[in-house]
Amino acid sequence: MSQNTNIRRVKASDLELKDRLVSIQRVTKVTKGGRTFSFSAIVVVGNENGVVGYGLGKASEVTAAIAKGIEDAKKNLVKVPILKGTIPHEQEAKFGGAKVLIKPASHGTGVKAGGAMRAVLESVGVTDVLAKSKGSSNPHNLVKATVMALLELRDAHTVAQQRGVNLNKVFNG
């Protein structure tokens, strides 16, 4: 993450978190005794009010993998600025082969986003947004790229603080 010194980490203990399953994969390990199946699950958790985290769980059963994924997701929660149900500005991010573009939208638009991105954006509490995934559709990388894009968002208050000027100057130059 390039210039991100403003990553806001959050503790899971004091939040009402909802979890969303992004994808489950059955993976196979081939040994001389035959094939061993196990499952990996990507889970996104969020309080639908600006806090989101993702996790990966692996286990020999689906339920155990999901439970592990939720635990993992609760360990890396971050805070994201949300204004009136949308995001403050347009933002792009790239992780691996997945590129994402998220754009603010007017009230009533809804979440226009594909599978893995939709889970992240709904968990964070965005109700109106336009999103496009370019490049890879791999859910692992899509989730990571979306979270990166959300982390790079800055609201007007943060910008004013960083520049040491008042809010009026941020908007009107």
What features would you describe in this structure?
With 173 residues, the chain is of the alpha+beta class. 29% of the residues lie in helices and 36% in strands. It has five helices and nine strands. It has a five-stranded antiparallel beta sheet with strand order 1-5-4-3-2. A four-stranded mixed beta sheet has the order 6-7-9-8. β3 (34-46) and β4 (51-59) form a beta hairpin. α2 packs parallel to α3. The protein starts with 8 loop residues before the first strand and ends with a helix. The model has no long low-confidence stretch (mean pLDDT 87).
Give structural attributes:
5 helices, 173 residues, single chain
Helical content stands at 25-40%
**What is the beta-strand fraction?**
35-45%
Largest beta-sheet details:
5 strands, antiparallel
Order of helices and strands: EEEEHEEEEHEHHH
Number of strands: 9
Q: What distance lies between the first and last C-alpha atoms, to the nearest angstrom? A: 29 Å
Mean pLDDT: 87
